[in-house]
Amino acid sequence: MSQSTLQTAIKEELLSRIKRGYYEEGKKFPTEYVLCEEFDVSRTTVRGALNQLTLEGYLIRQQGRGTFVAGKKVRQTLSHTPNNYAAQLAVQGKRGEVSLIQLSVVSATDVLTEVFPVEEQAPIQKIERIRHADGEPTQYEISFIPWSIAPGITKEQAEHSLFDTLSKVFDIQVAKTTESLEIVLADESISSHLKCPINAPCFYIETVTEDQEGQIIEYSRSYFRGDKTNFVIERSYR
Length: 238
Fold this sequence. Notes:
Elements: H1 3-20, H2 32-39, H3 43-55, E1 59-62, E2 66-69, H4 85-91, E3 96-107, H5 110-115, E4 123-133, E5 136-146, H6 155-158, H7 162-168, E6 174-185, H8 188-194, E7 201-211, E8 216-225
Antiparallel strand pairs: 1-2, 3-4, 4-5, 5-8, 6-7, 7-8
């Protein structure tokens, strides 16, 4: 595993711990030495992961005191739209396209068992895709769907709307999505997928999708090029 891949994996694990409250807000964060020992990696790799978390606002470094867990970010709710990606682009006169990077089955990790009502090691379908607008990559998305929910999603289905596939093929109706939006900086992996410079600002959205019974059926992490994407929030006060 390359250093950049290790750095990304460690950063995501530490971020998951912060979001789950494993590291408490305002408390001192483990030192580079402690993390190097835990993950059995070089100080350079750990430092890169900590730098990323600091730049994204999850950690605060205080001169002479160390690194601390930052306060939680303010949440905003995005307005609802019934249109999928291609339909939204079509209205803007652009051509939308989805390309599949990888379709695999992975074992449920601690993070995924906290999202889905499944046991650890349960099979989860992992779908990595890139969305394009007029041929340019604008979004890198990693989706997770339990095998028990929709077994055997195909490459053809993954290159189209997953919500349409859930509805038409598996008779599962999407009833609600909960989305968290923030700004992150592109690491080497995101830079490669989105064809943008390393450390370029990107929108990051985590989405949890529920069916009509309130069962969580899909979880995704999406990165959007900041120079190619904006979001509209529409509120009605009537």
